[in-house]
Each structure stands twice: as structure tokens, then as C-alpha cells.
Specification:
The protein has 4 helices and 12 strands; from the N terminus they run E-E-H-E-E-E-H-H-H-E-E-E-E-E-E-E. It is α+β, with helices and mostly antiparallel strands.
């Protein structure tokens, strides 16, 4: 049985996927999280959620001397880190704008200014003022077909994300470019083939993901079980 787990770490300013040894104490975890979230150890309040969208926490890591395993931490749960005193932390200074005096300008006054971004866009026909091109944009031809086995590049060394291509084409959640929909062999994805209420393919929850073509390598990649035995040092 593996002694480490992969979890999602979420704070007011960060979101990342990390792997931790279950023998690590909460206090040691907080020291690591300070480098990731910018929240001082003394200000951290860590709660465990089954998913990032859940409103109810399943555990609160309130005892610094307890190991992570004491809280029955499982694969791909979410650790939400709250800053209990944001006024004393660097991230709090960035996000707390309550003391900042606001400069307000009405829409009519802003439209009259000639030195604004709006005036520049109007003069040069940029953005929403650009002349519309009614001709459809060509979709680049890719050497990727639905049903192909593939391997998706990962930021983690020696971590292979293998699966099957289930979708190739443009999407409504991104205005430009082509996306590859992948059904992973393991529950390491972000969806079930649907994004923002629109379905592009069907797979099990947490098995689906959409990636850019340059991250996908198509080939004879057999199903490979992910080895979670390597502990984080």
C-alpha cells in the first residue's frame, strides 16, 4: 500500500497538484505550504474536501503534531488553505483592497477621453471595434484521430498520463484553436468529457481532460498502472 497521496492544494491565490507522504505531520506540511501559497505557517487553516467544488469539509487539520494519515487523506482530495490573518501576509496585501482609495469615472466621462484604451481601440479598430470577418477560420489538420492511444506530457518527472483520444476539434469553452479530448486510463483528469455544461465525449468522472495538441503524443501506448510508491522528499 502506498505511503503517499496526490492532492490538490487550493488557497486564495494559488492552485496546484502535489504529492505528500502520509507520515508527514501537519506542522511539516504547513512549512511546505508556506512556500506554495505564501501564507505564513501561523496563519494557515487547512481543511480537507473530497473535491474542490464541495461545500462541506470532511476533516480539519487542526493538530500540528498529527501525521496526514491520521486524517485518512485519500488520492485527489483537496486541501483548502485559508489565511486567518491576511493583513499580515504578502498575499493578503495583494488581495485586500479595502484600504485602497478608488478612482471612479462614469462611462460617459470615460468615453469622452482621447487618451484612453477605449479611444485607442476605436481609432485603430481593435477588439470589439474590429471589422468582422465573416469567412470561417480554417481548422489546422492534425495527425490525431479519435480512438488513438496517446500519452500526454506532464510537468511531473516520470509521471506518464496515458489514455485514449475521444475528441478532436474546436470547443465553446475556448474561442480559438483545436483541443484534444482525452479519456485517461486512471482518475487523473478534470471532468467526464463535458465542460461548462456541454458534452464533447463520455467517460467516467475524473477520467476526462482537454489539452492542446502540442502536449499529446499519439502511438502504441499500452495501459500502464500509475506507480504511487515513490515518496516525496
Amino acid at each position: 500500500m502506498s505511503n503517499s497521496v496526490s492532492v490538490f492544494v487550493v488557497s486564495p491565490d494559488t492552485r496546484s497538484e502535489r504529492r505528500y507522504d502520509l507520515h508527514l505531520t501537519v506542522g511539516q506540511l504547513k512549512s511546505k505550504l508556506e512556500m506554495i501559497t505564501g501564507i505564513p505557517v501561523a496563519n494557515q487553516q487547512i481543511s480537507v474536501f473530497n473535491s474542490e467544488d464541495d461545500a462541506q469539509a470532511v476533516a480539519h487539520m487542526s493538530e500540528d503534531s498529527r501525521p496526514l494519515g491520521f486524517y485518512s487523506l485519500r488520492e485527489f482530495q483537496t486541501l483548502k488553505v485559508v489565511d486567518t490573518n491576511p493583513s499580515t501576509s504578502f498575499t493578503g496585501q495583494l488581495t485586500d483592497v479595502s484600504q485602497v482609495e478608488k478612482f471612479e469615472l462614469s462611462n460617459e466621462e470615460y468615453a469622452k477621453r482621447q487618451d484612453s484604451v477605449l479611444a485607442y481601440k476605436m481609432r485603430h479598430k481593435v477588439g470589439r471595434f474590429a471589422e468582422e470577418d465573416a469567412s470561417p477560420q480554417p481548422i489546422p489538420k492534425l495527425d490525431v484521430t479519435v480512438g488513438s492511444r496517446c500519452e500526454v506530457e506532464s510537468t511531473e518527472e516520470d509521471f506518464k498520463k496515458r489514455g485514449t483520444v475521444r475528441f478532436v476539434g474546436p470547443t465553446n469553452f475556448a474561442k480559438t484553436g483545436v483541443w484534444i479530448g482525452v479519456e485517461y486510463d486512471e482518475p487523473i483528469g478534470k471532468n467526464d468529457g463535458s465542460v461548462q455544461g456541454e458534452r464533447y465525449f463520455t467517460c467516467l468522472p475524473s477520467h476526462g481532460a482537454f489539452v492542446r495538441p502540442d502536449r499529446v503524443n499519439v502511438g502504441d501506448f499500452p495501459v500502464e498502472e500509475i506507480n504511487f510508491d515513490d515518496e516525496e522528499m
